[in-house]
């Protein structure tokens, strides 16, 4: 598995696969063809279908400024390697092609070149299943955070920065008012929910909702967020962790360890299944975030490794089959509410797991495989194309 730096990334929302990945690719291509007079970016499949609502064209043009970029949309053209494909072409001043590059935005802001196998990405963790991780921890008497620090000893400082940025985004979201950008005129709710949380001290669920909403609303308006594991699902982990810190007094140090545990779960899902809504639907985004957050909550509450794994399993299992159908392609409906509900669900998953003796029938490894297969079986209209589900019915209304 890769470094947690590849999972928790900092960038502008609203979509890690539709804004962070393309921005990263545009920067790489621009540096390869510094002499180019202009560029073209051809967006395929899901990147084209929801690119406008997800601000893909805006971010590519902004990244390649001041050079002009022509954006070509090909939503009906799905490339077999991954539904989020893009091709960059560089031109000289006579519009002669200098070179091109096909690249895929595979979720969480990561990009892969055409032909590059996923397992060629540098790995630093030697294990790739939760069962292996649990066994290594058992033999060495490690917690799950010990496991992360053992193989990535310098990650703590980075996670501290990640926690800081998550908190900044949350604070910005709690004071913001008005509606979110786009034709839905979607009203912000975080500030109002937070006021209700303060008026109902001890109602943890309202606090969790308000914090998750604050981050998700900032994401929807293109603010800086942390992919956890994606921009679309960025409200879940900070929502539940900061609410628990406020209610139960955990230190930042404890939250950083919890982020390491959540990151381990996210890394396993990314390695064995997918965190890309375009590939497997929202079960890979909000489902994965809920699974990560559930493990983190269980860890914070002092659960055993097995109970943390069980919490993560519950968090993912009960999002199986969840489609991605954003209305008008904006990361707003159903995304924002979904983050708030999943943050609370992560808390419930941890609580449920900890009420048991740890024995459970389905393992996290099994549910990850199930999620991947279910995602591949989903019709394209339910995988970030805004052509089915809520997106279709809202448009018809
Ligand atoms: S429905 Fe889920 S996967 Fe789709 S854009 Fe919204 S948050 Fe992302």
From TrEMBL:
Coiled coil segments of this chain: none
Necessary cofactors: [4Fe-4S] cluster
Domain (Serine dehydratase-like alpha subunit) ranges: 151-391
Keywords, ordered alphabetically: 4Fe-4S, Gluconeogenesis, Iron, Iron-sulfur, Lyase, Metal-binding
Pathway named in the protein's UniProt entry: Carbohydrate biosynthesis; gluconeogenesis
Top EC category: lyase
Positions of the Serine dehydratase beta chain domain: 3-62, 70-115
EC number: 4.3.1.17
Keyword Iron: yes
Catalytic activity: L-serine = pyruvate + NH4(+)
Keyword Protein biosynthesis carried by entry: no
Family listed: Belongs to the iron-sulfur dependent L-serine dehydratase family.
The protein's name in its UniProt record: L-serine dehydratase
């Amino acid at each position: 598995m890769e470094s947690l730096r590849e999972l928790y990334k900092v960038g502008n929302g609203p979509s890690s696969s539709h804004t962070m990945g393309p921005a990263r690719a545009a920067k790489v291509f621009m540096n390869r063809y510094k002499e180019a007079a202009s560029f073209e970016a051809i967006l395929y499949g899901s990147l084209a279908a929801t690119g406008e609502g997800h601000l893909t064209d805006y971010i590519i043009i902004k990244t390649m400024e001041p050079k002009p970029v022509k954006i070509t949309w090909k939503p009906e053209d799905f490339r077999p390697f991954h539904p989020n494909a893009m091709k960059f072409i560089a031109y000289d001043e006579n519009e002669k092609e200098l070179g091109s590059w096909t690249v895929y935005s595979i979720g969480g802001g990561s990009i892969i070149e055409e032909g590059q196998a996923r397992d060629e990405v540098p790995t630093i963790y030697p294990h790739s299943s939760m069962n292996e991780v649990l066994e290594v921890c058992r033999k060495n008497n490690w917690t799950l955070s010990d496991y992360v620090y053992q193989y990535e000893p310098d990650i703590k400082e980075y996670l501290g920065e990640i926690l800081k940025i998550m908190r900044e985004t949350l604070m910005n979201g709690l004071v913001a008012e008005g509606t979110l950008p786009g034709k839905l005129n979607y009203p912000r709710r975080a500030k109002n929910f937070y006021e209700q949380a303060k008026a109902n001290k001890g109602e943890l669920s309202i606090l969790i909702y308000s914090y998750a909403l604050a981050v998700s609303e900032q994401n929807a308006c293109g603010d800086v967020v942390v992919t956890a594991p994606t921009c679309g699902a960025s409200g879940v982990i900070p929502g539940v962790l900061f609410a628990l810190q406020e209610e139960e007094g955990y230190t930042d140090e404890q939250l950083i360890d919890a982020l390491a545990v959540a990151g381990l779960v996210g890394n396993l899902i990314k390695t064995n299944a997918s965190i890309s809504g375009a590939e497997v639907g929202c079960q890979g985004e909000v489902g994965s975030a809920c699974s990560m957050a559930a493990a983190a909550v269980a860890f914070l509450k002092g659960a055993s490794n097995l109970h943390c794994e069980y919490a993560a399993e519950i968090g993912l299992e009960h999002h199986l089959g969840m489609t991605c159908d954003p209305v008008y392609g904006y990361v707003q409906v159903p995304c924002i509410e979904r983050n708030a509900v999943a943050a609370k669900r992560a808390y419930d998953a941890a609580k449920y797991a900890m009420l048991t003796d740890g024995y459970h029938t389905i393992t996290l490894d099994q549910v990850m495989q199930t999620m991947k297969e279910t995602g591949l079986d989903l019709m394209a209209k339910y995988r970030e194309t805004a052509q089915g589900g809520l997106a279709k019915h809202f448009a018809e209304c």
